[in-house]
User: Fold this.
Amino acid sequence: MGEKLLMKGNDAMAEGAVRAGCRFFAGYPITPQNEVPEYMSWRLPQAGGAFIQAESEVAAINMLYGSAATGIRCMTSSSSPGISLKQEGISYAAGADLPIFFANVVRGGPGLGNIAGAQGDYFQSVRGGGHGDYRTFVMAPDSVEEMGNFPLHCYAVAEKYRIPAMILTDGVLGQMMEPLEFKFPEVDPKKLSEPDWALGECRGRKNRLVGSYDLYEGRLEVMTLNRAKRYAEIEAKEVMFEAQQCDDAQIVLVAYGISARACGAALKMARAEGLKVGLFRPITLWPFPKKQLRELADRVQGFLVVEMSLGQMVDDVRLATEFRAPVHLHARPSGVTPTGEEILKKIKDTLKAGKGECVCCK
Assistant:
């Protein structure tokens, strides 16, 4: 804490998890997240924890189910197809109200795709991802520093509401190096109290049960509705976002992750040319900052959503703004990172379209 370090994004996220009290990691290799398990393989034993390279992604997520059930802060990570294989286990953890933490360093897809950074896993992340009625708390960093500091917040939210929590990042942020500062003191897991539901020390207490299976009539519905109340509380209390120069903006860029970094460059160029442009960055993708976007929609000409996908978050922007202002999309799917210059051109085209000018041939 207070010390500047130069780290790769994946390493920073792994170190941030260890400093946040993680003492168990199970994972399986896949690019571009391989640095996370590699880092954990030596760092966790050094910190008194355990690292396991599982035989598959399916095995890894089920190991997390077991470790989380004992109250231990645990983690896994993967990239897109690997996260898909983990979804059944994530659903089981959600159904058992287990506070697991995982990360998706997204690559181009669908299928095996490529190893370049992408954002095509948004729908999978914010809609739960697996079977059943559940949600996952989702944070989207846009810097190496945020990748290092977000794990602590994920653990805090996961444990407070007993919900899976994840960091949704991408291959660009995972591989890039930047200076960072860890902005929290290292957590000593021994000083964390055992949760009253955990299957840890059993002497002198009543039996405890962790599971997602209940065949008694109506009881599963009660569990699901109680979980929904916690989800509503998360939506009310845990929304995070960043707004830049939105007060006088005519058009607001909406982007997360590395796309937001590209939009930041476009914002500077646009303002230098006298264009009234703002940038709105959702930091929590679920819960999504609906209220804040809805308020912006009443005073801007429109929104330009920039995504490294065919367009997924754009649907949430349209729902949030209730079509009070036009929502445009600049999409670069399958591992292509947008540039500030191309976003600036799209801004100009969007502003012209708002004035009724034809831009189809320009």
Summary: The CA atoms of residues 259 and 307 lie 6 Å apart. The chain has two domains: 4-237, 242-354. DSSP finds twelve helices and 14 strands in the chain.
